[in-house]
Amino acid sequence: MYPARLLTAAATVALAAGLLSAPAASAAPHDQVTAACTADWLGSTTPVLTGTTSGTGARFGLWDETAGVKLVDRQVGAQAGQLSVTPEPLTDGHRYSWRFWPQGGGQPTAKCGFGVDVTAPVAVVGSTDFPAEGVNKFAGQKGVFTFRATETGSGVVCYRYVLDGTLGVGSGCEGAVPAAADGTATVTLRPRDWGTHVLQVQAVDRAGNVTGPTSYTFYAPWNANAPKAYGDVDADGVPDIVLTDRAGNLQVISADATGTEPSAVFPAQAAPGGTGSWDGLEIAHGGWSRNTNPVDDVLVRRPGSAGGYYLYRGGLDPARMSPIYDYLPEAEGLDWSRAGQLVSIGSGSRSAPEGLQQLTLVDGDLWVAAIEGWWGETTRVTTAGNWGGYQLIGPGPDAAGNLTVWAREKATGTLRAYAVPRDAAGAYDFSALADPAAGTVLGSFPVEQYPTLGSSGDLDGDGASDLYAVTAGRHLLTFTGVTNPKDRGLLK
Fold first, then answer.
1. Which contiguous run of DSSP H or E holds residue 150?
2. Which of 89, 150, 181, 360 has the least CB density, counted as fewest CB within 10 Å?
3. Strand partners, 452
4. Pick from 241, 263, 228: which is nearest to 140 by CA?
5. pLDDT value of position 65
6. Count of CB atoms within 10 A of residue 247's CB?
7. Cβ atoms within 10 Å, residue 3
């Protein structure tokens, strides 16, 4: 009777990028072995084929299925039960199968198949909306871009791309657009600024090969009739609610959204000043400076800082997260380290909100600073120090261009409105803010129920500014004006 020999585990294909496993095969006392195999594509012509056995070796077979020939049929020794075979360089584009037999005869493992593909596909980009030559759409408008690739081996699985940026290091498909059955993919992108743009695309095939970046250059002209929306930070002409999540990331939620899913998320690590989190920073937006696209400039300041602020001109763009750092203005009696709030209130004209105004609270008094890409004149509005118990809100101008400021009394939750008219010279008269208790009462929003209260202008398109709130349970509410709350759902 022959001694029983056992092939105890499946053959595996080991590559630098990972492992392709052949399932287990075992020999019964009568040398009966079974296995099932999964086909895959490998990005190497010299894969290492491995297995295990309880004997001193096994018989190895390798077939070129594309050519229909057997390449290898020989015995291989085992080291401590481990089998390892590296065949002669295989042919790119061919498919192969292989198996082990127990020594002394018996049924082999099932064949394990794989293909070899070491040729990177070449990406090709096209767009009728933003062609490489000529113009069909404007900056700020959405356009469709189509990706395809020349691939004769394993087939394209996804495309990695970036507009006006640099592709990250890597070869996987995380964050990429998957390829359809025909190997193509489409993406919708919006070039924010007028001028020349570069879209870089890489194709990734099933063997893990990555093409070098293909650069697609196109021009997006200035749109003289671009939509203007106070509160818009992402250049789509729709106001946005900007809030942090539990992890300190900054999320942008469009007024057009039906829930709380953000249209963009800016990671905590991208927060300015090396803070590692957007949470706790003062983030203000409302209106834009001259000679820029009609998108809110975003100002970020660390509370208690006496130095400066970070300006994201033209809104928040994932491809341009390098803000301008500027110093806060100096004024007699103004100590920025004691400033409690920074609120954008716009210029007062919804149709042309160039020339930004910031309202801040220092030691219970209000100050207004006008900026047009830089800080302008700073004016002390009040001197009685009676604003210390209030939260400022900048709802922006209404459809007629009238400027209003809202404020919530923290102790009672009472929300008041203060009209800011123009004086005879056309400048805004902030004297209505002298007494915080003199504003028109709009409603009650206790801090315990609504820890966050704010406004990004006209959220529903009816021509009037709207309130939003975050409840103690982190539900986002939007209002029609200051009434009829709508629960959009739980925030992240």
1. strand 143-150
2. 181
3. 470
4. 228
5. 95
6. 13
7. 7
Collapse the DSSP code of 337 into the 3-class scheme (helix H, G, I; strand E, B; otherwise coil) and give the result.
helix
Does residue 352 sit in helix, strand or coil? coil
pLDDT digits 0-9 by tens, 23-78 = 444 444 433 333 345 668 998 999 888 887 877 888 899 999 999 999 999 988 88
Please give the structure tokens belonging to residue 100: 């082990």
Q: Which residue has the higher pLDDT, 149 or 429?
A: 149
Q: Give me the amino acid identity at 230.
A: Y
221: which 2 tokens?
A: 């002209």
Sequence letter at residue 419: A
**Both tokens of residue 193?**
């600024």
Residues 97 and 116: their CA atoms lie apart, in Å, by 11
Assign 436 to helix, strand or coil.
Answer: helix
Residue of 313, 456, 338, 445 lying closest to 397 (CA atoms): 456
Give φ, ψ of 218 to 5 degrees: -145, 165
- What digits encode the pLDDT tens for the residues 146-165? 999 987 789 999 999 999 98
Nearest CA to 27 out of 19, 38, 18, 35 is that of: 35
Amino acid found at 381: V
CB neighbours of residue 401 within 10 Å: 15
Q: Return the minimum-mean-pLDDT range out of 122-131, 237-246, 286-295, 381-390.
A: 286-295
Please give the structure tokens belonging to residue 85: 């075979």
Nearest CA among 161, 154, 153 for reference residue 124? 161
Question: 71 with 46: CB under 8 angstroms?
Answer: no
Residues 6 or more apart whose CB falls under 8 angstroms from that of 35 comprise: 10, 22, 23, 24, 25, 109, 110, 112
Strand, coil or helix: 211: coil
Contact indicator for 218, 230 with CB cutoff of 8 Å: no
| Closest-CA residue to 283 (of 264, 298, 261, 273) | 298
61 contacts: CB under 8 Å, gap ≥ 6: 70, 72, 73, 98, 99, 100, 101, 108
What whole-number distance in Å separates Cα of residue 1 and Cα of residue 104? 12
pLDDT for the residue 476: 98
Structure tokens at 275: 């803070």
Edge-to-edge strand list for the sheet holding 264-266: 240-244, 250-254, 264-266
Q: Are strands 112-116 and 40-42 parallel, antiparallel or unpaired?
A: parallel
| Residue 58 contacts residue 83 (beta carbons within 8 Å) | yes
Q: Give Rg (Cα) of the chain.
A: 32
Question: CB–CB of 83/13 below 8 Å?
Answer: no
Question: Average pLDDT of 382-406?
Answer: 88
The CB density around residue 53, as the number of other CB atoms within 10 Å, is: 23
Q: Which amino acid is at 432?
A: A
Contact status, residue 268 vs residue 251, Cβ threshold 8 Å: no
